[in-house]
Amino acid sequence: MAGSPSRAAGRRLQLPLLCLFLQGATAVLFAVFVRYNHKTDAALWHRSNHSNADNEFYFRYPSFQDVHAMVFVGFGFLMVFLQRYGFSSVGFTFLLAAFALQWSTLVQGFLHSFHGGHIHVGVESMINADFCAGAVLISFGAVLGKTGPAQLLLMALLEVVLFGINEFVLLHLLGVRDAGGSMTIHTFGAYFGLVLSRVLYRPQLEKSKHRQGSVYHSDLFAMIGTIFLWIFWPSFNAALTALGAGQHRTALNTYYSLAASTLGTFALSALVGEDGRLDMVHIQNAALAGGVVVGTSSEMMLTPFGALTAGFLAGTVSTLGYKFFTPILESKFKVQDTCGVHNLHGMPGVLGALLGVLVAGLATHEAYGDGLESVFPLIAEGQRSATSQAMHQLFGLFVTLMFASVGGGLGGLLLKLPFLDSPPDSQCYEDQVHWQVPGEHEDKAQRPLRVEEADTQA
Amino acid sequence: MAGSPSRAAGRRLQLPLLCLFLQGATAVLFAVFVRYNHKTDAALWHRSNHSNADNEFYFRYPSFQDVHAMVFVGFGFLMVFLQRYGFSSVGFTFLLAAFALQWSTLVQGFLHSFHGGHIHVGVESMINADFCAGAVLISFGAVLGKTGPAQLLLMALLEVVLFGINEFVLLHLLGVRDAGGSMTIHTFGAYFGLVLSRVLYRPQLEKSKHRQGSVYHSDLFAMIGTIFLWIFWPSFNAALTALGAGQHRTALNTYYSLAASTLGTFALSALVGEDGRLDMVHIQNAALAGGVVVGTSSEMMLTPFGALTAGFLAGTVSTLGYKFFTPILESKFKVQDTCGVHNLHGMPGVLGALLGVLVAGLATHEAYGDGLESVFPLIAEGQRSATSQAMHQLFGLFVTLMFASVGGGLGGLLLKLPFLDSPPDSQCYEDQVHWQVPGEHEDKAQRPLRVEEADTQA
Amino acid sequence: MAGSPSRAAGRRLQLPLLCLFLQGATAVLFAVFVRYNHKTDAALWHRSNHSNADNEFYFRYPSFQDVHAMVFVGFGFLMVFLQRYGFSSVGFTFLLAAFALQWSTLVQGFLHSFHGGHIHVGVESMINADFCAGAVLISFGAVLGKTGPAQLLLMALLEVVLFGINEFVLLHLLGVRDAGGSMTIHTFGAYFGLVLSRVLYRPQLEKSKHRQGSVYHSDLFAMIGTIFLWIFWPSFNAALTALGAGQHRTALNTYYSLAASTLGTFALSALVGEDGRLDMVHIQNAALAGGVVVGTSSEMMLTPFGALTAGFLAGTVSTLGYKFFTPILESKFKVQDTCGVHNLHGMPGVLGALLGVLVAGLATHEAYGDGLESVFPLIAEGQRSATSQAMHQLFGLFVTLMFASVGGGLGGLLLKLPFLDSPPDSQCYEDQVHWQVPGEHEDKAQRPLRVEEADTQA
């Protein structure tokens, strides 16, 4: 039984020991391998060589802060919509992201910036680590409420590695472009989580169904997440694009795409809603699909019209997904997708990858001019035609789906290890399994009121 | 009756069709007219010609993100104070702003940056569109709870056009200075909304009076909005001022003005409060009046002392407005002003315009030196005296009040079109008219507790 | 009695008069002394002399906005955890910070930038004033719920002066380095507040004990504060460090330290928690200790490994403090520390100062190269050895503890002045003493439902 003494003892030690082990191992690896890069190290950076204006720090750091806010505030609060799982949603977001930041600094460092026996870190490392944390949190959304914190840390341990390898294959081996991560972040994170959720399928989840909805104020907390994701998404997609017109264009395209996906979402939500009423789930999620769908193409010459169209399409597809596909996903495919990440990240991510195929295939020297070198360096250097780049982009999507599926499957098996603490079917979506939870309201009986206060209160 | 089948069918289609039509029309206009500007287009931007340091993107984009956060988080959550209208407040903010961003890109584009048959967009377009969305949301505050989403979209359709024309008349034809929009944003948005609210006057609104107040946690959500408006207002006023000392001075003046309006608000709120108690409505709103009142003059040589004085005055006037003038506005002038935009944006906006008249009239070549060219180019070029500039500023206020009043009147007539869905008098300030609303709390009876949980919970 | 007419009359006037007096006096001092600095004044700033790239504004302003968000959103909402003190927590944060910003502009201006009979203000003044406001809010955390707003303003009046003097002694007389304020902000603010709380010790506070805990949604509001503090802390520590590698390295170290303190906090919270359950108080607070502990050393060559280790240590010490030391602090030392500032700011601040001693003592010309001049100018100029710098750092901690203790004692005596309005022992942690508070929920009985709504709601 869940409440038996031995289980409690196991639970008591599982999370602490795993945290201590992971933090200890990470610290040792940092000690051996991680060093400041030449823009960060006091001795390597020379003011005379780098005027302030040249220091990339000032062009990347504000975007980093926006990405950082998006990952923690955005993902953290978006998942607070469940009525009794707010502590876990925001708390485990914090835990997972804090671990993923460190672990992906190591993984990505070994793959991308390992030279002279060391990993060299700087502002780009922080942005890349935040991106990876974003993918982990997307997967978290698929299994939200059905996994314990120790399970989640193990999921992150595996996912961060596969995220790093997949990204390396795409960006460095295949020469795929994916600045805002339609493939590397959204498609990967979503299908990793969905396959993992499939492996962890709970036929008896019905027992916790009454806790799976929202309450009035939990939906308002979730809107904090939505709005932070919405407002900072332009920075997210632009954070690592080429300085100058590249960042500028990426932000602008994302801004338009999000605006259109919002209108598309409201239209479809009212159209399919009971008695024409809007559904908060759609607004909280589908309105963001515009940011996902231009993740690959927003740095390209998508055109403002292209951004609007893509965003609108993503908003509608995502809303329809919530309404019609999520129930089928559970009943037919046995995938229990708590936050509907298939609708917000899965489908819009794949659409975004395909949009990238299309826009890359249409690239010409005329349209990009000197900018071709920063957007499609292999085409600019004559190593590839636009069609070839498009084919590589398409292959990148295929690779991502493979990594995500195999990884999610492995992750599911890992998380099924019998000694790992997992909430019983009747205790899913419930903070009390993991947290000391205060009552919903103060005990009014205990509070003595003065006369004039009693008057005011009435 | 509101719940009759035919009404429901009309409601079901009105919002979706309007969203689809507006988004479709906007997309077509974008396809025909909107192009990247030379700082955004891959082919037009040449790295060799523009060093990173010269790229205005880096000097405007962080301010844009602050403005963006202010508009969505700030206005969105500030209006969540109503006990049963949180979904609509934050949801319709989202819808209105997303539409206004696109539509005002077109309107402002035709007026300001139309050449060669195209509108050219970049980071300044995004900031300008966010400013316009701010004005629309101010008007929304005046009619909050009494209008349906289709009505609000039509309001935005009209208001964005008039906002654009008014701004064009002031800034380009009259040579008025209004960097932070005391006139173009706050005065315009407030009086447009108030006149519109007057036309939509509901003598039977009493029926929804019990829903017009706040509850404890809705007031805390509203404070999220207040704080985001407060902290990012310096960026709002400075977003489009001259690079260098101009932005610097504008931010500093706004910062001081807000600090003083906060102390003024606390002083007055306690002074006029029942038994000396503070009123959350005052703190949520009047403390922000300092940002409004220096909207015109913060880029000028207002002096830190001037900023403090102006902010303090605005905070006190605004608080007194909430306490004494709002009831009169409803009883005598038949204007039902849900959020009290007259107190936060109307009066402080007019005061801000008059302060701009005063500070412009005092401008001298000595006080501004080389900076005169960026603040008052027409005075610097000898085309105008300071007194003449002051007169133009005053005339700009007059023009704004005219545009806002006539526009609000037209808007009111438009929103009264009988086929438009509007909540009945007894269903105002109620989310359930527009949204599928979950219960306030989980059904505790349904939740089985394990023994040790029952202990913890007790 | 608290509710007697004469007391009410006194209360009615105390806060308004004090606000008006402080704002009036501040405005007069601003009029006489405060002027724009040469980067802010229209006439003193010459575009020709300062290219955009040189204007420090663009390198400091985004950090300022992050600090500003951290102080207001972060501290404001972190303290909302109390079930019936949310209005006061966020409202008085606003009031205190708004006053502290102005008052510390004057105090710090007289000490640091007074020349030619004037204080010269610019973006650095805003950052410095926000730092001081942060220290005041830390002290507020120690006395939260037990003091009235007039008392708090007097506390700020005194604390801002002592903060300024202490900072001046450390940074300018002793040549101590403390970029992120482990000593000047956290240690000072914490021990000032703790000693003050000691002087105000309430033996009968038991009477308000039932209101001292959180409720479910107040803990979620507090997590908004936590996350904003967490995400923007890198900017906080880096805001005034040397442009270039200095800011870069400081942000990176803080980022790693926070990630490690989060894992340490989760590990220890589960380890010491009842039945292995996590405690929200630990996550809300101790996870932030990583930002405090590197406040002094993050600009130094701490190394990423050093940052991880320091952060982890701070997270564990802070969590253990909440669990074991806070009760002792109250029972043995008669210090009632509402927010546990001793655990979040006190101990980690002292540890941070000691870490600064260590890292400064290890400084070599090899490790810092050209960067030595910006981090340890006195060592670079040969005026001091690394060991001597370390001794000065240690002496700085001692001085800070002295200023904080004596200041907190004086502050306690000041706040005990009998005519000052203070909540009675049975009315601590209660908003209704200071605010007009609405009910917790709408009156459901009053709300008429249409038939289909009743269906939806069920």
TrEMBL record, chains A, B, C:
It is found in: Basolateral cell membrane. Residues 439-458 are annotated as: Disordered. Residues 26-417 form the Ammonium transporter AmtB-like domain. Pfam families: Ammonium_transp. One of its GO terms (molecular function) is ammonium channel activity. The chain crosses the membrane at residues 15-36, 67-87, 94-114, 126-145, 152-174, 180-201, 213-233, 253-272, 305-325, 345-364, 394-415. Keywords: Ammonia transport, Cell membrane, Glycoprotein, Membrane, Transmembrane, Transmembrane helix, Transport. It comes from the Eukaryota. Its main location: membrane. InterPro entries: Ammonium/urea_transptr (IPR029020), NH4_transpt_AmtB-like_dom (IPR024041), RhesusRHD (IPR002229). One of its GO terms (biological process) is ammonium homeostasis. Belongs to the ammonium transporter (TC 2.A.49) family. Rh subfamily. Ammonium transporter involved in the maintenance of acid-base homeostasis. Transports ammonium and its related derivative methylammonium across the basolateral plasma membrane of epithelial cells likely contributing to renal transepithelial ammonia transport and ammonia metabolism. May transport either NH4(+) or NH3 ammonia species predominantly mediating an electrogenic NH4(+) transport. May act as a CO2 channel providing for renal acid secretion. This is Ammonium transporter Rh type B.
